[in-house]
Amino acid sequence: AQHVPDKKVDSVCPYCGVGCQLTYNVKDNKILYVEGRDGPANHGRLCVKGRYGFDYAHHPHRLTKPLIRRAGVPKTGDFVMDPDRVMDVFREATWEEALELAGGKLKAIRDTHGRKALAGFGSAKGSNEEAYLFQKLVRTGFGTNNVDHCTRLCHASSVVALLEGIGSGAVSNPVMDVTKADVVIIIGANPTVNHPVAATWMKNAARAGTKLVILDPRRSELARFAHRYLQFKPDTDVALLNAMMHVIVSEGLVDQAFIANRTSGYEELRKNVEGYSPEAMAPICGIDADTIREVARLYATSKASMILWGMGVSQHVHGTDNARCLIALALMTGQIGREGTGLHPLRGQNNVQGASDAGLIPMMYPDYQHVSSPEARARFEQAWKLAPGTLDEKPGLTVVEVMDAIHHGDIRGMYVMGENPAMSDPDANHARDALAALDHLVVQDIFLTETAYLADVILPASAFAEKTGTFTNTDRLVQLGRQALNPPGDARQDLWIIQEIAKRLDLRWDYGHVSEVFDEMRRTMPSIAGITWERMERDDAVTYPCPNEGDPGQSVVFVDDFPRPTGRARFVPADVIPAAERPDTEYPLVLITGRQLEHWHTGSMTRRAAVLDALEPDPVALVHPLDLDAMGGRPGDLVTIESRRGKVSLYARADESSPRGAVFVPFCYYEAAINRLTNAALDPFAKIPEFKYCAIRVTLG
Ligand code: SF4
Fold it and tell me: At what angle do helices 278-285 and 289-301 cross, to 10 degrees?
């Protein structure tokens, strides 16, 4: 009976924002297999990551003891995976010694160099409670708002545009609403790879008659189900979207009543799109004027049209402008506030929505209460039992800004929980040099990540299945993840570790069960005030906003008004801005980075999951076959890709989905860390870097 589980534990998938519910089948503290549950987002389905990506928790590379860097060992960015050599760099320590050093030195930096000399990165891999407690630690223990996480690299631009335009950074309608829509635009997203179970609902909708319109420079598998697929040129989103709006305005397809009753700023938007006729934009975006007109009419005139988007929209220096255009499209046609309509930025990580909601961002307290608001500060000072005037009124630094501040000597100490900026940050050599230059780096993780390799102290944490907490999916659905395993060796729960660090910074916290943190969150976050812990345990999933205990949760929002001071949504016009770095004779191709189906973000988990690693073991670059021919190469050849910032070598894969002149590379391979090449140029509004466009050259060998 060695393969018969001795317990079954209901939880959620640790990977993407779809938030599939699953059951862990466990025997002797080992997961044997995983099954899909009938959750609201997945109805029993799981993709390959959810089904097979669990055994990383049992991998021999798991950190099981606190580690302290050996004296005199230099910090270099050249990561060594060999666990045998780890002990040349680090030595084992007791928890007491590691915590005293980790927390004590953070405190010493604060007291000597001031509170702004510290920063913290939390993680969208962690629970809502971990995110909440981590940002509370940075704000009240470090005394700064220098706290951020991977949302900065993901949908920060979408959130800025949504907060500005409609007053809420979350989605207006759940993914499943694609089955209620007549027309669905999917732009800059590859759901089959990145949100696989959500993609199945999109395909079902297409089979049932919903017209899918795919707008993307890369042809995704979903394009096979599309009514229209528009392969526009990379970096020309605003040209295409403004041209669509030009058609809607000039042909009188706007919803006049909706504009008059529920919006402001339309006149400015209307004037702006006058200059963007489809004929003028066709050569820029590479889509003929008639097709632009057809798609614009289709979206504007259907009974219910919905827009979903991904990183292809957000990760540009004009990411906020791209999202502003999508919002304006929905507003001018009244395609929002009803079932089957609205705006849905597909969230990447399983808790990137929840971590942002919980305040793990430098400019907002939990529930998007701005740190510069005296009322918000007073509310949190009271809730956190602080003297008036304690909290910093200045927004903190964002992810990429923190790296620059380290190079300038302004930040000297960091606490990183579950993030891997040495792999995920743009211009990763610059980021690694920054991490190495810190006086003190504390990393809390389950593996010796590329970031942990640069740490002074490493705190061994708990894997997803080893803790209980809530996680918020892309649909604003708060779900309960339950502990199925005990952490290995001396690894500890993240909530415990955060509290131990807090103690060393003179904070007197005494949270016992995770529900005590959740209860405090409810008291400070009106959006989840009606979700009790008992309700989570009973129902497993509740959608917010849920302001009172009797409220069933609201899956479609903005039905009557928008959560802005005027109650009206706001049009914000956008103009075409080119990418920060264009191809030239020296670097003639474009690099686009992203994910692949089998691997997750920086690969620390999925590359240690046996099935997933077997499916995609080696770093690959996806090159159009004609470009590969032109360079005299064949599929499987080793190629070197170079930008002005670095170079990597990996295997070429012929891929017709990539447009000619563009190369796509996943960012999960430490041995070919593609973010060494990407550009750290930032969108000025959201400070999101331009992962989706920089100039490269490719050579054989
Ligand atoms: Fe997990 Fe996303 Fe796959 Fe669902 S679709 S099983 S949440 S990775």
Answer: 110
pLDDT, tens only, 422-463: 999 999 999 999 999 999 999 999 999 999 999 999 999 999
Cα gap 426→423, rounded to integer Å: 8
Two tokens, residue 247:
């058609």
State the distance from the centre of ligand 1 to the C-alpha of 676, rounded, in angstroms.
Answer: 28
Write out pLDDT tens, residues 216-270. 999 999 999 999 999 999 999 999 999 999 999 999 999 999 999 999 999 999 9
Query: Model ipTM?
Result: 1.00
* Minimal-distance CA residue to ligand 1 atom 2: 16
CA 126 – CA 138 distance, rounded (Å):
16
Query: What is the sign, positive or negative, of the torsion defined by CA atoms of 82, 87, 91, 93?
Result: positive
Give the up-direction half-sphere exposure of residue 410: CA atoms within 13 A in the CB hemisphere. 12
The beta-carbon contacts of 511-515 under 8 Å, at least 24 apart in sequence, are 511/133, 514/127, 514/129, 514/467, 514/468, 514/469
CB contact at 8 A, 150 and 349 = yes
Please determine, for residue 77, whether its predicted confidence score (pLDDT) is greater than 70: no
Q: How many helices (H) and strands (E) does the chain have?
A: 24, 30
| Atom 1, ligand 1: residue with shortest CA distance | 50
Nearest CA to ligand 1 atom 4: 20
Q: DSSP E strands: which ranges in 440-564?
A: 440-445, 457-460, 469-472, 477-481, 541-543
